[in-house]
Amino acid sequence: MKNITSNLSGLKLYRRRLIPEECIPLPNDAILYCDDDVLVTSWKTIRPKKDMDHGYSCYYLEEGYKISKFYRADHTLLYYYCDIISPSYEENTNTLIVTDLLADVIIYPDGFVKVVDTDELVTALNEGKLSLNLLKDALLTLDRLLRLIYAGKLDELLAPLDDFDIC
Questions:
Q1: From CA 51, how far away is CA 133, in angstroms rounded?
Q2: Model confidence over 48-89: pLDDT tens digits?
Q3: Measured between alpha carbons, how far is 161 from 22 in angstroms, rounded to an integer?
Q4: Which H, E and C letters describe 120-160, residue by residue?
């Protein structure tokens, strides 16, 4: 994602969801690292949850996925959460909008892998919130990500987080 590193101090980060439809700023996400392909952040949950308190995320901007480590309040790992995303950088406003393309992969500490929310892809397509081309891109990206995970490459995907993860 070219030019994103030109003004990191003023970078505005947004999360866009299709279901439910929302686009919210993430002003409290701390940018720990960024280059043209990778963005690493630390964050606290936006909406408090019983088990999840905070985490770290690595956005693979060119590949189209985000790998996050979700932690409980006591700093124990809850699970890894992988979002399929479509990032869009607006240079004139120094804004990165990351659209969540619904399909997700959860990887539990014991290694169990669970794919979730694929039904929402069909709902979003039927409701006109997702184009057929974006649906195809999301499914192909999900397939690439799952192939990496099943090939034992999760540690490589998590490597950019290791330098910053102090939980």
A1: 36
A2: 778 999 999 999 999 999 999 999 999 999 999 999 999 999
A3: 27
A4: HHHHHHHCCCCCHHHHHHHHHHHHHHHHHHHCCCHHHHHHH
Is residue 37 within 8 A of residue 25, CB to CB? The reply is no
Cis peptide leading into residue 27 (ω within 30°): no
Give the C-alpha separation, 106 to 109, whole Å: 10
pLDDT of amino acid 36: 81
Question: How do 22-25 and 54-60 pair as beta strands?
Answer: unpaired
What is the pLDDT of the chain when averaged over all its residues?
A: 92
Hey, CA dihedral for 61, 149, 84, 161, is it positive or negative? negative
Q: Is the pTM of this model over 0.85?
A: yes
**In the prediction, which pLDDT does 1 show?**
54
Helix, strand or coil, per DSSP, at residue 16: strand
User: Which DSSP string do the residues of 53-115 spell out, in sequence order?
Assistant: -EEEEEEETTTTEEEEEEE-TTS-EEEEEEEEEEEEEETTTTEEEEEEEEEEEEE-TT--EEE
